């Protein structure tokens, strides 16, 4: 029997509040000085570049290995993950074009938080038990599938975010800078070109910082110094050769290579590895079968990946809370503050410092919040309901319906702030984006209305179909 509306609402509200409280603990860590801004950035990059790929490999790989030949039935998730950001853009672009909405609202509306927030919300919904009504007799299996669906959506969204995000936020850097960046995804390029003297000096400084370590003998210090110097020289030489080869290519080929490079990121690599592992029989057995059935990697290697993957959800949201606190307490300085000798007047020709982009106004914010928390979820619920009721395109998996209804809901992705930096936005614009993100995440519990609507819609479909 479908759960009562009040019970569903209270359970969804509790789950949403748990997500907000996880953010709150991150804010508290920032207030108490337990997590510096630099440390938060490093932890965030570890989460995205190590923990999330591990989570993708273990969850998607395990689910695809269980599904076998039914893996192609996941196509609705992939297709909808591509479509709904462009629908969001269609609903916000006229406002930017004719109603003076900030340029960064394009990225803020198109790309929502598709990783830590929905996964953490799903964990809380499991605890409340309100998903049992759509689990179709297999609550554990269906909820694991929901995790896989959210992760697949996150993988597609990550590719779109870092391929299109900087372009949506404004002017991109000049060609040399743009092509040296790693898709806007990593904090630093993989290979940087510097003088050989600088490379040797950095290596010497790195060793000097450890000279007060009592357990490090002089011989080992000298070996480490020479080893680090050789490594720096080798890295420098490799970087020079790669850049010489790269810039020797025709411009169209460079643009193609840059485009490919810009969408390759650790989550995408993790998802591809998961698909490969699940598709190759002996790898599937080694990674996911019971040890007595040939799973020689499951008890130690797969479990280790699962352990670090499980760190992602709460830790990433915790770091988001700390980042939001830092963005409010230590906002970027305005140009006139940074340059007291300047005139304080804006450059009228600067496309990355438009007046409309530097302020957070009520009506644009209100429209974007309504779009993110009401319009897009409502559109998703209605579309999925019609397709599931009138056709068999989406199959009979109620948990897939539920995820399709929810993936477009929620606050913007926190990384639009870093995308703004990649796009060359001014510090005032980055500060406005940070203030907007604080507002969005403060009302995160509003997602409970979308959860209840999606749950009731799925229950209605199951009732009508007799499933």
TrEMBL record:
Record's GO cellular component terms: endoplasmic reticulum; membrane
Highest taxon listed in the record's lineage: Eukaryota
BP term (GO), one: transmembrane transport
Primary location: membrane
Segments for region (Disordered): 331-353
Residues spanning the membrane: 74-96, 263-283, 365-388, 400-420, 432-455
Membrane topology: Multi-pass membrane protein
Subcellular localization: Membrane
Coiled coil, from the record: none
Pfam family, any one: Mem_trans
Alphabetical UniProt keywords: Membrane, Transmembrane, Transmembrane helix
Keyword Transferase tagged: no
Protein's UniProt name: Auxin efflux carrier
């Amino acid at each position: 029997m479908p759960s009562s509306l009040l019970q569903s609402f209270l359970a969804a509200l509790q789950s949403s509040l748990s997500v907000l409280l996880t953010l709150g603990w991150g804010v508290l860590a920032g207030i108490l000085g337990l997590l510096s801004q630099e440390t938060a950035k490093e932890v965030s990059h570890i989460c995205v570049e190590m923990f999330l790929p591990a989570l993708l490999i273990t969850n998607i790989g395990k689910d695809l290995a269980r599904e076998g030949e039914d893996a192609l039935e996941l196509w609705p998730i992939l297709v909808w993950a591509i479509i709904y950001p462009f629908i969001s853009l269609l609903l916000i672009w006229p406002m930017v074009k004719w109603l003076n909405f900030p340029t960064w609202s394009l990225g803020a509306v198109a790309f929502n938080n598709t990783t830590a927030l929905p996964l953490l919300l799903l964990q809380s919904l499991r605890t409340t038990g309100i998903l049992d009504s759509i689990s179709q007799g297999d609550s554990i299996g269906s909820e694991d599938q929901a995790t896989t669906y959210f992760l697949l959506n996150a993988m597609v969204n990550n590719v779109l975010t870092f391929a299109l995000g900087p372009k949506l936020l404004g002017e991109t850097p000049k060609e040399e800078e743009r092509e040296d960046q790693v898709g806007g995804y990593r904090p630093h390029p993989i290979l940087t070109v510097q003088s050989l003297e600088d490379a040797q000096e950095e290596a010497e400084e790195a060793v000097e910082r450890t000279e007060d370590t009592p357990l490090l003998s002089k011989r080992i210090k000298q070996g480490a110094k020479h080893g680090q110097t050789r490594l720096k020289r080798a890295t420098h030489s490799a970087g020079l050769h790669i850049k010489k080869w790269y810039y020797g290519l025709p411009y169209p080929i460079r643009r193609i290579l840059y485009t490919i490079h810009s969408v390759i990121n650790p989550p995408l690599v993790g998802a591809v590895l998961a698909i490969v592992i699940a598709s190759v029989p002996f790898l599937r057995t080694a990674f996911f079968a019971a040890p007595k059935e040939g799973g020689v990697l499951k008890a130690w290697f797969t479990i280790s990946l699962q352990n670090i993957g499980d760190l992602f959800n709460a830790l990433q949201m915790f770091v988001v809370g700390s980042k939001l606190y830092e963005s409010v307490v230590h906002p970027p300085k305005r140009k006139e503050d940074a340059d007291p000798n300047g005139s304080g007047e804006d450059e009228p020709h600067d496309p990355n410092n438009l007046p409309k982009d530097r302020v957070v106004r009520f009506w644009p914010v209100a429209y974007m919040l309504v779009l993110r928390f009401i319009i897009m979820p409502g559109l998703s619920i209605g579309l999925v309901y019609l397709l599931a009721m009138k056709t068999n395109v989406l199959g009979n998996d109620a948990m897939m319906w539920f995820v399709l209804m929810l993936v477009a809901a929620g606050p913007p992705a926190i990384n639009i702030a870093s995308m703004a930096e990649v796009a060359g936005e001014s510090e005032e614009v980055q500060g406005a984006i940070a203030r907007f993100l604080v507002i969005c995440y403060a009302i995160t519990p509003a997602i409970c209305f979308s959860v209840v609507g999606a749950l009731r819609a799925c229950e209605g479909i199951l009732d009508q179909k007799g499933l």
